[in-house]
């Protein structure tokens, strides 16, 4: 009796995650300030002040989280998942036609259009520094490729995502249709806080 042949599976790799360190730091700072002022108003405020503070926190905290802590890009072997402030977009690599970075980082697809990558901001300052480095290499007659570590962060991210996209174009598991999901967990509390603020400010 022969034993079955062992099944071989391709190795799986963790998604490459791209996030803005400056955005996260700024968001944490804003949340700390909002929490300090809001809790102080809730505890020490009189009259309608605690309610106004509660409505303000309910409105502002989700927005701060949406624009600072939430944005991220997950580049996997088969698909690209873009987590923007109010939407999450999942793009199989076969649907991606171009990834570019000019004044913002964008992904273009065949049918779904264009999506901005909030988590990969374009820094003109970093780009100028990287261009000066490349110019020095060119003037010095260097034949080797530029050090990737000296490139701007956005250009490194775009290069890595382009590499993943090119490798996965014909892979069966990288096929499919784009999926867009609204971030109701952010939108709902922000709208509730806005409505409560309007009610409190327009009533006596």
Concise account of the structure shown:
The chain has 204 residues and is α+β, with helices and mostly antiparallel strands. Helices cover 47% and strands 18% of the residues. The chain contains five helices and eight strands, in the order βααββββββααβα.
Order of H and E elements:
EHHEEEEEEHHEH
N-to-C CA distance: 87 Å
In terms of DSSP E residues, the strand content is 15-25%
Indicate the percent of residues in helices: 40-55%
Q: How would you describe the shape?
A: elongated
Biggest beta sheet summary = 5 strands, antiparallel
Q: Which structural class matches the secondary elements? A: alpha+beta
| Low-confidence regions | 5-9, 145-150
How many strand elements? Answer: 8
**Biggest β-sheet: strands ordered side by side in the sheet:** 1-2-3-4-8
Number of helices: 5
pLDDT averaged over residues: 83
Using the CA coordinates, give the radius of gyration. Answer: 23 Å
């Amino acid at each position: 009796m022969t034993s079955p042949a062992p099944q071989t599976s391709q190795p799986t790799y963790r998604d490459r995650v791209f996030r803005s360190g400056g955005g996260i730091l700024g968001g944490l700072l804003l949340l700390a300030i909002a929490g300090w002022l809001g809790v102080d108003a809730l505890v020490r405020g009189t009259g309608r002040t605690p309610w106004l503070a509660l409505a303000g926190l309910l409105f502002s905290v989700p927005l701060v989280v949406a624009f600072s802590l939430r944005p991220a890009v997950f580049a996997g072997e088969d698909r690209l998942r873009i987590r923007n402030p109010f939407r999450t977009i999942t793009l199989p690599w076969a649907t991606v036609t171009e990834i570019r970075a000019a004044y913002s980082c964008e992904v273009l697809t065949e049918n779904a259009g264009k999506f901005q990558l909030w988590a990969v901001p374009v820094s003109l300052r970093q780009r100028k520094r990287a261009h000066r480095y490349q110019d020095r290499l060119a003037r010095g007659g260097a034949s080797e490729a530029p050090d990737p570590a000296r490139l701007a962060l956005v250009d490194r991210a775009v290069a890595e995502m382009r590499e993943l996209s090119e490798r996965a174009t014909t892979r069966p598991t990288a096929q499919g249709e784009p999926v867009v999901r609204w971030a109701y967990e952010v939108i709902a509390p922000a709208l509730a806080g806005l409505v409560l603020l309007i009610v409190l400010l327009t009533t006596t």
